[in-house]
Amino acid sequence: MTHAHHVVSHSYGTLLVLVLTGSVYARGWLRVRSSHTEAFPEWRAGSFLLGLFLIWVAVASPVSGFVHELLVAHMIQHLLLMTLAAPLIWIGEPLMPLMHGLPPSVVRRVVVPLRHRPSMRRLGRIISHPAACWLPASGTLVGWHIPTLFALAMQSATWHTIEQASFLVTGLLFWWPVLQPWPSVKRTEWSTVVYLFLATLPCDILSGFLVFCDRVVYPVYLSPSRLSSISALEDQQCSGALMWTVVTVIYLVAGAVLTARLLSPQRSQEYWIAKQHSESSSATQTAGQSAEVV
C-alpha cells in the first residue's frame, strides 16, 4: 500500500514532465523539419514520442505498481527503460528539436553558453567514449540485481526512484555509440558490432543465473500476499527468460542492421574512396617534406 501510494503521488509529476518534454520536442521538430525535411521524417518524431510513452508505462502507469508483487513486472520495467525507451529516444534525434523547441531566451542564456564551454566539450568526449557508455550500463544492470541492493530499492521509494533513473540514464549512455545521434558524426564501424556483442554477456550471465538457480534469489517475492498463482521460483525463471530473450533479440537486430550497412556496396565504395584520399594526402605530404629537404 505504501508503494501504491508513492506510485500515485509521483505519477502525475512524471506525466507532466513527459508531456512537457514531448510538447517541446514537437514544437522544435516542426521548426527543424521545415528546413531539414529529409533528416527529420515523421517516423523520427513517432519514435521519440513512443520512447516517452514507454517511460511512462515503466515508472508511472498502473503497471508499475506490480513490481513489488512480481519479479517479471520489475524485469519488464527495466527492459522498457534500458532496452526499448532509450534507443527509441535517440532514433528520434532529439537534441536539435529540443533546442529549437525551447524558448529563445533559455537557449541563449543557458544552452549556448554550456555548449561552448571547453569543460562541457571535454565532458562530452569522455561520456561518449564506448567504454564510458558500456561500463555504467553493465554495472547498473548487474548492481541493482545484487540481492542487497535489490532489497534496498524494494523497501525504499526514494531508492526505487534512483534505480529507475539509473536504468534510463545508463540506457541512454549505452545506446549513444550505437545510434550516434546529432551532434555525433555517424560512422558505422565493426567495433560497434563487437560493442553490442560484449553487452550481451552481462545480460546472459544474469539471466542464465535467474533461470537455472534452484532457489529464490529475492526473498521479497516470497510474501504470501502474492497476486499471481505462479510460485516465486517460477516467477524468477520467467523473469530471467524474458530478459534473455528480449535483450538477445534487440541486440541481434541492431547488430544485423549495422552489419548490413558495413557490407553494403555503397559502404565499401565510400571506404575505398576514403582510403585512396588518405593515401593521396599522405603521398602529397611526403613529397612536400622531400621538397623542403632538397
Chart the SSEs and their pairings.
Elements: H1 2-33, H2 42-59, H3 71-91, H4 95-101, H5 104-115, H6 118-127, H7 130-143, H8 147-155, H9 157-179, H10 190-212, H11 232-263, H12 265-293
Number of helices: 12
Net shape: globular
Alpha-beta content class? mainly alpha
- Secondary-structure element series: HHHHHHHHHHHH
Rg over CA atoms, rounded to whole Å, is 23 Å
CA(first)-CA(last) distance: 86 Å
Task: Specify the biggest β-sheet.
Answer: none
Tally the beta strands.
0
- Helix content estimate: over 70%
**Uncertain segments:** 1-6, 271-275, 281-294
Mean model confidence by pLDDT = 85
Strand content: under 5%
Number of domains: 1
Describe the protein in words.
This protein has helices at residues 2-33, 42-59, 71-91, 95-101, 104-115, 118-127, 130-143, 147-155, 157-179, 190-212, 232-263, 265-293. It has 294 residues and is an all-alpha fold. It has one domain (2-263). Helix 7 (130-143) runs parallel beside helix 10. The chain is globular, with a radius of gyration of 23 Å. 27% of the residues are buried.
Compact summary:
This protein is mainly alpha-helical and 294 residues long.
Features:
single chain, 294 residues, mainly alpha, 12 helices, disordered N terminus
